[in-house]
């Protein structure tokens, strides 16, 4: 059984920083892609950032220059360093991972972690 668990959310003032972590565990051969999505009430879920096993990254335009995604392949962990946070960043952040097991690649999601940025 594969599990994906986020941590690091919380309350921060505008201009502050948070670092999110997401660790995958279980029977894992490789993790092709890891990333972060977010969803605020009344809004669609949106991609924040993603990173491939080779280190290629994609960012939403709204976070370029403020957020940085990284991963440790050895630890099956992805990080999201969030700087210069804005109230509009407030959302539930979900970790995503496309994981190759002994069967076939499958998509996994974390339970979500709340990020609240006060004005």
What kind of oligomer do you see? single chain
Mean pLDDT: 95
Biggest β-sheet: count, sense, barrel? 7 strands, mixed
Number of helices: 0
Tell me the β content.
over 45%
Shape verdict = elongated
Provide structural commentary.
The protein is mostly beta strands. The chain is built from no helices and eleven strands. The protein is elongated and about 45 Å long.
Short description:
The chain has no helices and eleven strands. The chain starts with a strand and ends with a strand.
Keywords:
mainly beta; 0% helix; 119 residues; seven-stranded mixed β-sheet
Task: List the topology elements.
Layout: E1 3-7, E2 10-13, E3 18-25, E4 30-39, E5 46-52, E6 57-59, E7 67-72, E8 77-82, E9 91-100, E10 105-109, E11 113-118
